[in-house]
Amino acid sequence: MALSHAKSGDLVNIQDAAAEFSSNTSVTLVRDDHIEIFRLVLGAGTHMQEHSAAGAMTVQCLGGEVDFSCHDKTQTLRPGDLIYLNDAAPHALHSKQGTILLITLMLHRK
Predict the structure, then answer these.
(1) Which of 34, 39, 68, 73 has the fewest CB neighbours in a 10 Å radius?
(2) pLDDT in tens, 18-31
(3) Residue 57 domain-assigned?
(4) Where does the record locate the signal sequence feature (predicted)?
(5) What CATH number should be reported for the domain holding residue 87?
(6) Residues 65-109 pLDDT 10s
(7) Does residue 4 lie within any of the structural domains?
(8) How many domains does the chain have?
């Protein structure tokens, strides 16, 4: 069964109480022609190798703590912090503890 994504005007709770820090999960909340918003939950000690997204993006820390590497530096994101990356900027991350991120991608879909 396909997951349903929020439609224009739908209310979405981004701090889902069911999000477990013990496992790595990703849930797409909004998917449209040129935007995708998803919640990424990372367990403590999770490392994501350097990669890039298919567009510009923002990463907002909702809970926990994660080291975020991009543009030749590493910064620690904590709740309330947001970082912007331009189109396809390479980045990597390492969660210091269970972490919840809200990621918004601005895509080039036609």
Answers:
(1) 73
(2) 556 667 788 888 98
(3) yes
(4) none
(5) 2.60.120.10
(6) 999 999 999 999 999 999 999 998 999 999 999 999 999 999 876
(7) no
(8) 1
Domain carrying residue 36 = 25-107
Q: What is the residue-wise DSSP string for 9-39?
A: T----SS-TT--TTS-EEEEEEE-SSEEEEE
Rounded-to-integer distance, Cα 10 and Cα 89, Å? 30
| Residue 36 contacts residue 28 (beta carbons within 8 Å) | yes
* Parallel/antiparallel/unpaired status of strands 82-85 and 55-63: antiparallel
Residue 75 lies in a domain: yes
Entry pTM: 0.86
The structure tokens 């990463």 sit at: 59
Q: Is 81 domain-assigned?
A: yes
| Backbone Cα Rg of the chain | 14
The residues that bridge with 76 in the sheet, in sequence order, are 67
Which of 66, 93, 68, 91 lies closest to 79, judged by CA? 66
